[in-house]
Protein 1
Amino acid sequence: MGDFYQNGVITTLHNLSQRPLEALEAELVQFSKSRPMSLVLPSLYSELQGPALDAIVEHLTEVPYLDEIVIGLDCATEAQYREALRFFARLPQRHRVLWNDGPRLQNLHRKLVDKGLSPGEPGKGRNVWFCFGYVLASGRGRSVALHDCDILTYDRGLLARLIYPVANPSFNYTFCKGYYARVADGKINGRVSRLLVTPLLRALKKTIGQLDYLEYLDSYRYPLAGEFSLRRDALLDIRIPSDWGLEIGVLSEMKRNYATNRICQVDIADIYDHKHQDLSPNNDKTGLSKMSIDISKAVFRKLATNGVVFSTETFRSLKATYYRIALDFVETYYNDAVINGLNLDIHKEEQAVEMFAENILKAGIHFLDNPMETPFIPSWNRVLSALPDLGEEFLAAVEADIQEFSP
């Protein structure tokens, strides 16, 4: 059970009473009459074969308030797309599976590239962006939630709490971030958030000073959570990264577009576990190594747009400052684990810190060497201005795929 303490500059909605799910869903059903709700599920085909997604879909079959479910399917052949259509067919809600690698959606992708509106390299960011475009084109959902497809501890109460703040018409929130304790199987997980993001933000405050943006990011209890919800209008203006900087990029865009009293975070799970990325200390093109570089670059880019001037010396000082703060956090988390009877390997924690410190410097040097790099996907406002008929073409392409390949 969480406490009721409000920290930072955004509202925190706690889980104080273990409110019955039936009561929460009954309210959401009422809200859905005036504010229809959509769910976005960015998925790799491989996740259909994994241990989590089948159970997630079973839980979703019981959700009574969703008007639409949009599944973005990546890395799928024609046969695998057909299988995905069968896999999700049990959902009673209106649902659409976007075959992102299929010829019809690839044709739309080429049209975007020809207009200088490339949605970037394949990955979660691009998948999410296409799903958002479909939600906008369909016009059904006014409140939209997104969560990952690899949550091993999923139950539908997570979704109810996640979407409630932006679905309740008496609330003023445009964006809501989910949070939870990354504790499962007797271990504290979430290394990138615990050992990279939080100590990096604290180190930036020491090296470049207190900034509203840093205070804002530091207000999130779990900034890298893949679960968030927002109102449909917010989908038009956000420019998100196509790499591992997606979550930080979305938070940054919300700060750019909205006052902090329109933003909140909500406790959505007592226990949360999903698939874990390898540390990959010898390969910065994959795993947590690549993730840490992409996230660091996303933070540096945003700070630069706020007028912060970086240099090689800045990043060297930042690396040293981060390293000391992060090592102190290792001790903090170890003590937290011990009092709760959990396991935490200090050696592995410090190995991660050492790699993250190196990657902060790598990200900084890359940022300095590539000042014109623009990894952001264009906003849907810009896309629809350049290609006004794209939304209708998108809907038609998805329907044509379903009609041709449905079992």
Protein 2
Amino acid sequence: MKRHSLFFSFLFVLVFTAQQSIAQEQKTDSELITELISKKRDFNKKFGYGYRIQLYNGFEVEARKMQAKFRIEFPDIKTYLTYSQPEWKIQIGLYKSELEADRILNELGLKKKFGAGVIVVPLGK
């Protein structure tokens, strides 16, 4: 009888320590969430998902004039001059959501200053 209780005690300790060592190797939920958020941010940086405000779409000379005018008025906001045949585009900012881009567009009064052609455009979709 004493041998059986000693055997079961040993077996219990063995199973308990094995379970504890396995549990220590597994990541916690917060670590997994942090890791997923980091991967999502890296993906977004690489592929450029988000929204920008497009000020102009057309000829190169006009696009460069529009870019210079914008840089004088708003030096803190980054501008992007791109060429997609057959047109040049001036886009500004990088916003996570369309709502955020619309809010900036309205707060800065960009339609009044740069014309009715100012729109919010999605990136990478």
